[in-house]
Amino acid sequence: WPFHAPLVHAINRLKRERNAVILAHNYQAPEIFHTVADIVGDSLLLARKAAETDADVIVLAGVHFMAETAKVLNPSKVVLMPDMGAGCSLADSITAADVRLLRQRYPGVPIATYVNTSAEVKAESDVCITSGNAVEVIESLPGDEVLCIPDQYLAKWVASQTKKKVYTWNGSCEVHERFSGPQLAAYRQQFKGDITIIAHPECPPDVLAEADFVGSTAKMQDYVEGKQPRRVLLITECSMADNLAVNNPGVEFVRPCNLCPHMRKITLSNILSSLTTLEPRVEVDPSVIDGARRAVERMLAVGK
Ligand code: 13P
Ligand code: SF4
Q: Which family does it belong to (predicted)?
């Protein structure tokens, strides 16, 4: 990508000057993922690395809830979100008041909340989960019932992996809910069965029923890198396949392309601008920061 070179060069120089680190989600565009990102990964790894970093400035090449999580774990650091409009349909589906009502309706039932939520929602929760650790975290909770919110499809998948009774909410990811079981069956037919289908647990149940493997974006990556299937269909945001294809030249990626409009708001230009001005900064209301940190840290402690 030669026309990106001046921007990449300027970003990497400013990163050194500002002692900044760029965390990029697996759905970021290749020209960000493979050039200026210091740490790349799924939501769980980005939260872990945000908790460990000794940088003064954190730039989140991802979406707003990821930057909020980084701020909650590092209240004294500058956390930059290159485009404040990079949201998430799951985070928008539930409010702190909704969680308070759920607690009244299900007294004593632990509330496990997906990291794809606002800090206010996290602060009302007992623990956070990601798609990479949802089953493990939920299994670690007391009792045989759990509220797994706000993603109805992640909750259904968790319910299929645990004996606990799982209650949920009606949120969904606008990217993953667009896939369908018949669409996957048509791909299998097109390639006469010679295809490995890997799906994200934010997909509806009929999609997951057609998949050979279900996991978070990091688990998808591990599966592809470990097993080197001949032909793969990644049922998730399609930049993920572009990023994986770079390091797995022997794997053929079939690419149905569902893009996340929020992830796409992050560009090399707005990363450079945020590092230049140290704006826009993500701030978290002091009244919720401790509660949100407690829920995230409880999650990070599981499996350590
Ligand atoms: P993971 O990378 O944790 O699997 O999350 C996927 C996602 O949709 C993030 O917004
Ligand atoms: Fe949210 Fe879905 Fe986009 Fe992830 S892919 S940020 S869950 S809308």
A: Belongs to the quinolinate synthase family. Type 2 subfamily.
